[in-house]
Amino acid sequence: MKKSLLKKYAELIVKVGANVQKGQDVQLYANVDQEDLANFVVAQCYKMGANYVTVNWMSDKISNTHYKKASVKALSYIPEWKLEKEKYINKTLPVAIFIESSSPDAMKGVNQAKLVKVNQAVYPILKPFRDERENKYQWVIVGAASKEWAKKVFPELPAKKAVDKLWEKIFETARCNGDPIKNWKEHNKNLEKHAQYLSSLDLDYLHYESSNGTDFKVWLMPDVKWAAGGEYTQGTHRFFNPNLPTEECFTSPWKGKAEGTVVSTKPLSYNGELIEDFSITFKNGKVVEVHAKKGEELLKHMISQDEGATMLGEVALVPYDSPINNTGILFYNTLFDENAACHLALGHAFTHLLKDYEKKSHKELIDYGFNDSSIHVDFMIGSKDLNITGYTRKGEKVQIFRNGNWAF
Ligand code: ZN
Q1: Residue 271 has what pLDDT?
Q2: In angstroms, rounded to a whole number, what is the distance separating the alpha carbons of residues 304 and 179?
Q3: Can you tell me the distance from the alpha carbon of 299 to that of 268, in angstroms, rounded to the nearest whole number?
Q4: Any domain includes 317
Q5: pTM (2 d.p.)
Q6: 279 and 135, same structural domain?
Q7: CA–centroid distance for 371 within its chain
Q8: What is the mean pLDDT of residues 2-10?
Q9: How many angstroms is it from 80 CA to the middle of ligand 1?
Q10: Which of 30, 128, 297, 399 shows the greatest Cβ crowding within 10 Å of its Cβ?
Q11: How far is residue 304 from each of residues 216, 258, 290, 374, 398, measured CA to CA in Å?
Q12: Residue 30 CB partners (closer than 8 Å, separation 6+)
């Protein structure tokens, strides 16, 4: 990929995504195949006055080997220095930048039951640290083309061409063409308009219907807003865009209040493996039945992670005619595919959407109705003929989606 384009992308990531401020520390996470982009990101961070940028290198190949060869006990062990790092991060609240280039089936051949066991052992230890820093720091997750991922998306192309094409699509969907800073100003404004309208409706519940079999109702909590695009850090009030790209308006649904069946419309890459053509049925807000043509076992492992993994943490609306869906490409990557279709997420909910959430403890927020889990997995249910009807707390009926797109 042309260095000038990577540099432009790095500028977008650091300025618009992370919004790095003078004197801030940065933790950058990237796979070893992304040295060039990571290098431009580091340079851009310093240009904006960052104090120190720590680069955390990762490798799918080595992670795969670890999960295959090491014992559950070894994989579940958290050394003292890692806990010290968590403490240090909570004290200094560095900006986090995640460059995502993993292959959708990076964990192929790994025993998923083993992954579940390791997560169950590790998560309770790390969770208090994560809860403590939630909403308090800027972070951003962005895509980057690797050979393995590109081959999955464009199997008909030779490797180099596939990588170039994936980059092109990443830049396009991240609005990195022309003047990216201006693009994002406009885009955020537009998204915000939709989110504000949805919030103003004070919706009690949504009813989804599609000819593929989706017939589903989900209830929403009072005083929990819809959000889109950028958000602010708690206390320091710094604006950042956690996802590049983003096209969704989303909210956190009421834990334990969902009924009916949703049918997937795109494959889901989870823990480095694919789940395809699946449906999920809810009763009293909990998953009671799942079916999948491919990856059903994996889907079952996913929801067995903890109690919260069987309940919803996100409801997101994305028009069928979104720029990402219009590329006609299936990215096999949630960051992109979730922004191409209406979706739900099982697991952890976004607590910052509640009015005056800063004044409440984590426990109070959970008691209010936010779901808590070690997972947050988006899955796509948007289709061409999806209709969504909203029912307000005053008992009015409002058409939200008609034939896959915004009805207002
Ligand atoms: Zn989402």
Answers
A1: 84
A2: 45
A3: 10
A4: yes
A5: 0.91
A6: no
A7: 16
A8: 95
A9: 34
A10: 30
A11: 22, 18, 12, 11, 36
A12: 37, 38, 55, 56, 57, 58, 98, 99, 101, 144
Compute the distance from residue 301 Cα to the ligand 1 centre, in Å: 21
Length of the chain: 408
Distance from Cα 84 to the centre of ligand 1, integer Å: 31
Q: How far is the CA of 115 from the centre of ligand 1 (A)?
A: 24
Backbone phi, then psi, for 340, in 5-degree steps? -115, 0
| Shared-domain flag, residues 123 and 82 | yes
User: Quick check: bond before 245 cis, omega within 30?
Assistant: yes
Model pLDDT for residues 269-297, shown as the tens digit of each residue: 888 888 999 999 999 999 999 999 999 99
Instruction: Give the chain's domain count.
Output: 2
Neighbours of 293 (CB within 10 A): 11
Q: How far is the CA of 314 from the centre of ligand 1 (A)?
A: 7
Residue 1 pLDDT greater than 80, yes or no: no
| Claim to verify: residue 211 and residue 169 sit in the same structural domain | no
Beta-strand ranges (E) seen in 242-285 are 243-244, 249-251, 253-263, 268-270, 273-283
- Centre of ligand 1 to C-alpha 79, Å, is 33
Domain assignment of residue 193, yes or no: no
Give 224 Cα–ligand 1 centroid separation in angstroms: 16
